Amino acid sequence: MIKKNKWQDTLSNLITDPKELLTLLELDEVMLASSIKAQLLFPLKVPRSYLKRIEKGNPNDPLLKQLLPHAFELNSHPDFNQDPLQEKKFNPVPGLLHKYESRVLITLTSACAIHCRYCFRRHFPYDDNNPGTSGWERMMEYIKTHPKINEVILSGGDPLAVSDHRLHEFTKQLASISSIKRLRIHSRIPIVMPERITDDFITWVESLKWPLVLVVHANHPNEINEDVKHALLPLKKRNVTLLNQSVLLHGVNDDAEVLVALSESLFSANIIPYYLHVLDKVDGAKHFEVPMTKAMDIYKKVMSTLPGFLVPKLVREEPGRKNKTVLKPSLRGA
Length: 334
Known about the structure:
Helix 6 (164-174) runs parallel beside helix 8 and helix 10 crosses helix 11 (292-305). A hairpin with a 2-residue loop joins strand 1 and strand 2 (103-107). By secondary structure, the protein is α/β, with parallel strands linked by helices. The termini are far apart. It has a single domain (77-326), classed as Aldolase class I (TIM Barrel), CATH 3.20.20. The protein has a nine-stranded mixed β-sheet. The protein has helices at residues 6-11, 18-24, 32-39, 64-67, 136-144, 164-174, 189-192, 199-207, 226-237, 256-268, 292-305; strands spanning 96-100, 103-107, 151-155, 182-187, 212-216, 241-247, 272-277, 313-316, 325-326.
């Protein structure tokens, strides 16, 4: 039996001080000055248990690079901005984004268990999009008046930072809308804080009237450990569709062997690779960008190594488009 509030204790005791992080990982405090400046723009957040997967004393650890604030984030670039996907244009009701005709995205919370430094919503106006339970009625009314909407996506912030009770209350209201056929959750928490998948969460999953799709977010094979596999197994047994989306990141996973190993690790955890995203051009993340020629070369090697069902689609999200753009490398001479 999983302790009911263990995950909430973890969430309330995140590492938020760069100095503490560097000390725990036995890293040189010369890195501290730039981390402090960068975290003023986007605070550090990381679960303590996640540190077990990071190599101590290694400033180039691929998991560390995803979460440690860095002076590079202070550099501006004309092609990068605070709203790279122009989401403000698709935000008709607080807490709801309607970018694709048949799907809406709901932000139930601004909270996350980890602040990924490349996050495309690191500048998102959550204060304007955190309506609380009092705002759910407007969301439901919007969905009802747009009958082509057949899927609701809970995203973030991280929707699994919300209590099981609140998830239950939200889906109870949503159940009155007959057009909805699926519920999808996009969450990093099952990867970085697998203790979140509690017995109460499983009970909530079993109560749902629709098929559930859980899209997790792992970028490197070192993120998939036995705790993650153990946590996700009860969901697989209950026919939850488990998918993964990654972001192609310089210095983290811009290597065909790493991406192949990631797909194999995901499959060992019953997760199917879904998307490999080209970096969204958000302010503060330019140093993670992988040149397109290199991205295509890496992807061709991944395609030639893995069976098709383990190859994620390489995609770019572009504002205003009705779907993600699938990037297909030329295979001539490959």
